Structures are given as C-alpha cells and as structure tokens.
Amino acid sequence: MILKVDGLSFAYKSRRVIDDAGFELKEGEILSILGPNGAGKTTLLKCLNLILSPDRGTVLIDGKNCCDISHGEMARKTGLVAQHSEPVRMKVYDLVLLGRKPHFHWSPRKEDHAIVEEAIKLMGLEELALRYADELSGGEFQLVQIVRALAQRPRLILFDEPTSSLDISHQHQLMARIGRLIHSKPMAAVMTMHDINLALRYSDKFLLIREGRVHAAGGKEIINPENIKEVYGMESAVTEACGHTIVIPV
Fold first, then answer.
1. How many CB atoms lie within 10 A of CB 10?
2. Rounded Cα distance, 93 and 213, in Å
3. Which of 63, 153, 164, 201 is most buried, taking the most CB atoms under 10 A from its CB?
4. What's the pTM?
5. Residue 236: which of 208, 204, 213, 217 has the closest Cα?
6. Is 46 within 8 Å of 190 (Cβ atoms)?
7. Full DSSP string of 186-205
8. 246, containing H or E segment
9. How far is Cα of residue 133 from the mean position of the Cα atoms in its chain?
10. Cβ pair 83, 161 in contact under 8 A
11. CB 151 within 8 A of CB 108
12. pLDDT for residue 245
C-alpha cells in the first residue's frame, strides 16, 4: 500500500474545508478527486504531502506517518505538479534536474543526469531540453513540470488539474502518457480533475467530494446518476460508448 489516508480533516481558521476524508491507493493506481468548484479538491491534495497541515487524521506513505518523515524524505517520496506555476529563466534540462535535488547533497551525480535524460526521453521532450522554460507554451511548460516530478522518482505523484492548459487532443495524449508511466513504475498518482469523462477514461479509482466530505470512494461503480446528482446537483445518464464509460448531462 503506497498511500493510506484516515480521518483527514483541515480547516482555514474556523471554516472546515476537509472533514474526515479517508481512502487507500496501491502501487500502479491512479485516483481522481472529483467534485464541484470549492468542494476542497486542491486543499485535500495539498494535505497529502503536508503543504497544508491537517488538523486531525493520518497520511501514511509506505506505512510511514507523514508527520514523522523529514522534509527531505518527504520530497523523495512525493512529487507535486501544480496547476499554476510561473516559468523561470532556466533551461528545461536544468529545471528538470532540480527534481533530483532531494537525492543529492551538493551537486548532481552521473546517476542524476542519467535519470533526468531518461525522464525527458520518456515524455518525448528531447527537442525542448535546451530551450528556456519561459519561452515555452503553457502546454509545453506543463509537460516540463510533469517530467521534473518524474525525475524525482517518487512513490506518489500529486497532480492538480494536469490538463487545465491543454486542448482536447493534448489532454488525451498527456493522460495516456501518465497512465502508461504510473502503471509501469513502482508508484501511484492522485489528481484533481474537473472533467469526469477524462477521469473515467484514465483513472483506476475515484473520490467524489462535496463540501469537504467524501461522498463516495471506489471504482467506476461510484460514478452513477445518483452520486452525480448528490455531488453536482445535476441530472445525468451514465452509459458506454466505444468501450468506455461516459457521463452525459441530461
């Protein structure tokens, strides 16, 4: 078990944002957190690597309580791909190499450079390696952030709306790549998503949250008209098309 969350709660001052969340994630699994705007998706994600400190509950990574893990070990075990991040005046290769920082003390080793080159190749970004990050398009820079997280070789990668700056074609290309990587490496992924159908296509598990509480957790069986009505306040039909489960607003 890579990730186990139990009784997780978080509040901004007196306002409860996450209340008693719990779920588990095994190696090779992708979990999508779904819910309306303001439901607490990003807050929950940030609690998983202690960017935000929960009021109650536990987050276990590889059986270790995150509160007992040093910042360095936490950086080696978890990678984060934020939804919004400003590009800096740095070459793509050097930016990806920063993902290895938790693994070396003063300067990168040959092993670190080899891992960076492998990560860049895996995502097909060889042509961007020597370009400056602030000269890239939004979609290209998003890919670079993902490559940097992969270079960390973490056990858990957290994605906050990974497809938000991409068109529909590149959304599917990116999600397919993420799926192949997570399913082939000794790691797992948690991502916040707005697009239910995109999540259904590429995720193994789902968490439906409403007003900070987990309404349902599980596989595709929880994506049904009743739960969608409760969480989103929307009538829908759930059907199959071209071998995939899809949600159609009614």
1. 22
2. 40
3. 153
4. 0.91
5. 208
6. no
7. T-EEEEEES-HHHHHHH-SE
8. strand 244-249
9. 21
10. yes
11. no
12. 93
List CB contacts of 71: < 8 A, sequence separation 6 or more: none
Residues 90 and 136 sit within 8 Å (Cβ to Cβ): no
pLDDT digits (tens, 9 = 90+) for 141-188: 888 988 999 888 899 999 999 888 788 998 998 899 899 889 888 999
**Cβ-defined contacts of 193-199 (< 8 Å, 24+):** 193/32, 193/33, 193/34, 193/161, 193/163, 194/34, 194/161, 194/164, 195/163, 195/171, 196/34, 196/223, 196/228, 196/247, 197/246, 197/247, 198/163, 198/171, 198/172, 199/32, 199/34
Structure tokens at 224: 């049904």
Q: How far apart are CA 29 and CA 24, in angstroms?
A: 10
- What integer is the mean pLDDT of 32-50? 93
Spatial separation of the C-alpha atoms in residues 45 and 183, rounded to whole Å? 21
Q: What is the pLDDT of residue 12?
A: 86
Per cent of the chain over pLDDT 70 is 100
pLDDT 10s digits, 77-91: 999 998 777 778 899
Please state, in angstroms and rounded to a whole number, the distance separating the CA atoms of residues 57 and 9: 6
Q: Where are the alpha helices (DSSP H) in the chain?
A: 41-48, 71-77, 92-97, 110-122, 138-151, 168-184, 196-202, 225-232
Residue pair 31/203 in contact by the 8 Å Cβ criterion: yes
Retrieve residue 2's tokens: 């890579």
As a residue count, the chain comes to 250
* Phi, psi dihedrals of residue 85, rounded to the nearest 5°: -150, 130
Q: Enter the tokens of residue 230.
A: 């409760």
